[in-house]
């Protein structure tokens, strides 16, 4: 594990492994770099892989106040550390951050995103905006467990699964970084795909979803991630839409990292 210093002085922790073209892995909500560690191993057979803790997670620092621009500076510092331009791969809200990084003009070649949770209808956008208000209020009162439950409800987790998760080691670990849900919310903006910014991107891009919803997202509309992915592809000039054979929001690394068409490895090798 190594650290790089972001523009505002925040230390950003990362692991580096493998040799070849550089790919940076960007994690999603309630996760540190351990979530992408298995994928990093797969990709390190072909690439130099940088897998980092987004600010406020794992071993990275968390200088306040938060702003999406600070997260972009974190990525910029990491890209500078690599010594050149990079490929970016982002999962869930990390995918939104990847798209914002490309739009901000960071030194990015190809990009891949998986199941970015944008909202495409007025009703869903209204639900998202209410969630953000409620989340901010709960975090301000330090009601971390309630904030976590609120997020899980938004993500489509059944009430009985939320109840049974409380008090588990996984729940306690998520509570420790639950404040970063506000960071993810900021990356997603008003909840809708930022089509005006996406339309200006000329990066070759893979926009992927799985074949079915994660077991913890049973109450989402079955087409939620597909609709969001379709909207991203419709806006981006060089985006490729793919469905990969996985049924989890954290995709099987052996599938995502294989060289078959429609996978991350295939997309970033051209």
UniProtKB/TrEMBL annotation:
UniProt cross-references to Gene3D superfamilies, sorted A to Z: alpha/beta hydrolase (3.40.50.1820)
Membrane-spanning residues: none
PANTHER family assigned: HYDROLASE ALPHA/BETA FOLD FAMILY, PEROXISOMAL MEMBRANE PROTEIN LPX1
Start and end residues of each AB hydrolase-1 domain: 23-249
Protein name as catalogued: Pimeloyl-ACP methyl ester carboxylesterase
GO molecular function: catalytic activity
UniProt superkingdom: Bacteria
InterPro entries (alphabetical): AB_hydrolase_1, AB_hydrolase_fold, Carboxylesterase_BioH
Organism: Kribbella caucasensis
